[in-house]
Amino acid sequence: MSLISKVKHSTFTAIASALTLVAVYLVSVASPVYIYSGETPEELLK
Fold it and tell me: How many CB atoms lie under 10 A from the CB of residue 37?
């Protein structure tokens, strides 16, 4: 495996890991925000 191949592999692995961490963070943050949505508007209670 050449040096350029190793660098490409490392770069793509790092990008994939970073995107995975971002996805997990966004899903974990969105859940509490969705669960706590505040008070129900009066228009929906009619």
Answer: 7
Rounded CA separation 4/23 (Å) = 28
- In tens, the pLDDT along 1-46 reads 699 999 999 999 999 999 999 999 988 887 666 666 677 778 888 7
Whether the predicted model's global pTM rises above the 0.70 cut: no
Q: Which residue has the tokens 């508007």?
A: 41
DSSP H or E run through 17: helix 3-35
Give the span between the Cα atoms of 24 and 30, in whole angstroms: 10
Task: List C-alpha distances in Å: 15 to 10, 11, 22, 35.
Answer: 9, 6, 11, 31
